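Researcher: Next sequence.
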Amino acid sequence: MWIHRSNELPVIKIEWTFMAGRPAEHKKLADSFTCKLLSEGTKSRSGNDIAELFDKAGATFQVDSGVDYATITLYCLVDKAIELIKLIDEIINEPLLSADDLERIKDNSAQKLSIDLTRGEIVSYRDITENLFGPNSPYGYNTTAQLIEEINQEDTVRHHRLLLDSKLRIFISGCISSEIEKELAIRFGKTSSFHGIDICYRPQIYKGERVSILHIDDKTQSSLRLARKSLLRRDAGFIDLYMLNLIFGAYFGSRLSMDLREKQGLTYHIGSYLEPMVFDSCLIISCELSAVNLTESLRAITIHMKMMKEQLVSKQEFEQMKRHLMGNLMQSVDGPFRKANLTKLLVNEAVAPEALDFTVDRINSINRDEILRIASDWLNIEDFIITIAGNIESSESLKAEINAVN
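Model: Next structure:
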């Protein structure tokens, strides 16, 4: 258990994380549907009964199926914590996993999928991650109507057994009493982070489409994505890449945002972001725009990549990036709940305890010449794959234009 105490308010937050996400699945979507079923009832209570108990206690309860791990989150008043911990113990260890509930959730998921597939930003993200990681990778496979149909009750029962056998980590923050600690230790101590199976996944090298153009019936805007593999959060060069990406496109003062959106008006939205998972990671450039601006926007992105490699960033934007990053770091440790969120991220992604000190030292020591070197390693257009989703009249002519740009 990881604990961050504060007696300012009689409120507590507890998060249970199970290392039983997609890399642990025996069948695609097993993690997602198992997590959705957890709050639908236990062997002695219905889903409505469970929801009513949390409502009466004034508590918030949520189950999330992340890519790498499943998370159960509880916010509640301190005097309600022990009774709700007992209820969550029941939810975790004695879920009903009903076939009827599963069919209802499958129907809802299929309906949501049909809507998602009309949205360019979702379609482009699905396609580019599949082409980058591979269709059989836990980070690359996409939800489909067929995969939804193929999930059955036995799959959820099997994944639930795996969840119980996986490594459990508990993150507690707020007004924590010794009685609450003792209750958690009694009920979950045997499934601590030092017990449970180790999930091991080795990323595969996958060669997908270099340029992918997908037609959807959305005449208002198109979606452009560029992506490449990047670094894990625990890798030594991660903070360097993070700072480069901030300058390039990751916040309101970045080059992509200030030029393509604010100055040239080529996009409705643009940004670049790092997406580190436990076993793999990527750098994605994302923008929503009119189809007529696709080629010009890609050309502008390519130009900014080239400039980052050839010209020193100005002192003003360099110092602005550092202030922004230091401000974010200060916010991440402001209060027990935020400290717990940061701890959860670092522990679950196996980041060394001294990483925060190293990050602060690196922010203070990095210079503009080093940004040039880092950009030369990471901002080469030929290393990126490209996906476009929108109402494209001629895919072949657009592909030719894109190939001419890069």
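Model: The radius of gyration is 23 Å. The chain has a mean pLDDT of 94.
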